[in-house]
Design brief:
Pectate Lyase C-like
């Protein structure tokens, strides 16, 4: 049975063992899995310092939180706690580190399934990549060291990273749901429906811009593309890395 209460969990530890008379040290890990009720228009907040996060939309008013904590040091494994704080309209998920962190702190990989229209306005990662798929609600997410891949989106999106690329594809877009993609060191790839008619601005210092529409111009600070349209407002910006803008009949998968 799934539980529906806040949980600090360290479950199912894996231990080292001997194989064919050779001592093999396996990474210690623990598993976490719980289901929480949340309305389709509720909010989910996620913060993770070490480890990847994957978020997928489904057609249920519930959030499934799965997490795997890994470490080569059994002592640091116990310092990483998965903390989930549920309320009627909000589910907060974060990793809390207890004690003094080692040079190689435990990492926590999250696999989270949410109502498709949920509000994801505070997703913050430090060392790890972010994957989003099948979400119709607004998304605001940032990473420091990690790439962001967002597929089959349908709402407002503000995605930014410092060291990593950004790949985003949209099933539907509208002027009411602007799109902003930003990276400092990493390429940006955007795919939107063919009939979007966007008001688009893209700029970078190095790496170039490739687009299905508009004309790229060179400036004293790299390349710039401006497309005047009446549809969705799009802003793309990076420093080091190319920008590619593609119009599709069917989104990337």
């Amino acid at each position: 049975m799934f539980k529906r209460q806040a949980v600090w969990a360290v479950l199912l530890p894996a231990v080292a063992g001997n194989v064919l008379l050779a001592s093999v040290i396996r990474p210690s890990q623990t598993e976490f899995r719980h289901l929480y009720a949340l309305p389709s228009n509720g909010r989910v907040v996620i913060e993770n310092a070490y480890g990847d996060v994957s978020i997928t939309g489904w057609d249920r008013d519930e959030v499934l939180v799965e997490a795997t904590t890994r470490s080569t040091d059994a002592k640091s494994l116990g310092d990483a706690l998965v903390v989930v704080e549920p309320s009627a309209e909000l589910l907060s998920i974060h990793t809390q580190y207890a004690g003094s962190q080692s040079r190689q702190p435990a990492s926590v990989e999250y696999r989270i399934t949410v109502p498709r229209g949920v509000n994801l306005q505070e997703i913050k990662l430090t060392n790890g990549g972010l994957s989003l798929n099948g979400l119709a609600g607004p998304v605001k997410a940032s990473a420091v060291n990690g790439s962001i891949t967002a597929l089959q989106l349908g709402g407002q999106a503000d995605l930014s990273t410092i060291n990593g690329g950004v790949v985003a594809s949209f099933q539907s877009v509208s002027r009411a749901n602007p799109i902003s993609l930003t990276s400092v060191n990493g390429a940006i790839r955007l795919s939107i429906p063919h009939a979007a008619g966007p008001a688009l601005t893209a700029s970078n210092l190095s790496g170039g811009i490739a687009s299905d529409i508009g004309r790229v111009s060179r400036t004293g600070h790299g390349e710039r593309l401006v497309v005047k349209g009446s549809g969705v407002q799009i802003r793309l910006r990076n420093v080091n890395g190319g920008i590619a803008i593609h119009f599709h009949q069917h989104p990337w998968t």
